[in-house]
Amino acid sequence: MRNLVFLLAAFLFMEFVAWFSHKYIMHGFLWSLHKDHHIKTNQNDSLFEKNDLFFLIYAIPAMILIIAGFINSYPYLIAIGAGITLYGFAYFSIHDVLIHHRLPVNLIINKGYFAALVKAHQAHHSGKNIRDFKNYGLLIFPRRFFKE
What we know:
Layout: H1 2-29, H2 31-38, H3 54-72, H4 75-99, H5 113-125, H6 144-147
């Protein structure tokens, strides 16, 4: 039961980590890596973006925690690493598949939480310059997107 609490806490904490790193790192000093996710050019017609490198920033610590947990018999480290990994899977599924259609799966959701989530993310992408962006989180966003 305690390990499930660690897993859920890690998953939930990752929303804050994603918000913080998106606002202050991706739209800050590492904008050069994140820019191609917002500004499409003929040069970035490939399947991958420089922005995809941020996957490693989250995946490597999760892998280290899981491996260290198994090596040292610390199940709470495995649970924390699994929570980070589950958030990464949720982020990929929602952000890359549902919102940006980066895989050949075309899910259209017209109402409820996921429709509001898509609207909030689209608002983030409608910014005209680096200071114009809003809605840096993924799973948590302003209530107004449920009404629009």
